[in-house]
Specification:
Oligomer: single chain
Helix content: 10-25%
Strand content: 25-35%
Number of domains: 1
Shape: globular
Radius of gyration: 18 Å
Largest sheet: 8 strands, mixed
Distance between the termini: 37 Å
Order of helices and strands: EHHEEHEEEHEEEEEEHEEE
Number of helices: 5
Amino acid sequence: MHHQKSLTYSAIVALLAVGVVACNDPTNAAHTALASTSTLADKGGNGSSGVIGGIAPTGTHFDLSVDGVPQGQTPVMTGLDGHTIFVGLFAGDSSSSIKGNNGNGIGREEKIFIVPAPTGASFQVLDPNATDANGATVQLPVSVSSTYNVWVRAVAPIGQSILSTCATAAVTDSTGVSSSEVVCPVATISMTRNPNAKLENVGSDLLKISVDASANPTLAACLGIKNQQQTTVGLFNSCFQNMLWTLQASGLAQVQLQFYPKAS
């Protein structure tokens, strides 16, 4: 049975949007304005990240812009500031199509790989181009799953996108042979652009992965799970080798993604 979590505004594509607006000219005014907001340390508040009535919090945060690139075009990589990722329009794999596949054989194109930031470092886009064979790479704080929430908003006029957080994990078959397998949640985050889209809090849904560990005894043993099918694990758990966002995009343009520290 396929479960799907639907969000009204820009719930998911947060991370993977697709855009015609930014694609035609990645250096256009809209794109530049969005990128510049990432330098704002305080949006009129005192640095707290409390949420009131669904209104985005104030304070220090990290902005990420995900811009779509039409098929056949190459994104412009010059003048970027570590806050932009390019993805293909009408491209990408669904989580169900790669779930259970050999983790060493999945293509990296149209995927955003997530790596832990080194000690003393924080959020940073390391490779902004998800449209090539290497995929995109973004680094996040090691503790991001427990210390941050994500707010998202679609900036483009039309489209839909489905996003999942997946990983690769070690598996051992009945003959004792070890290999790597792609693990993805049953539930996904689906987003359709709303004309009045506002920033929407998706909590830490994009920063954790829900897996059926009972289907993978090796993973269940690593996680210390007994008599439990579903479990939710944060990014960078040592039982996983690679963490990534995968999406299936259907025309969504530019998306704004903001990471805010959770209220203490």
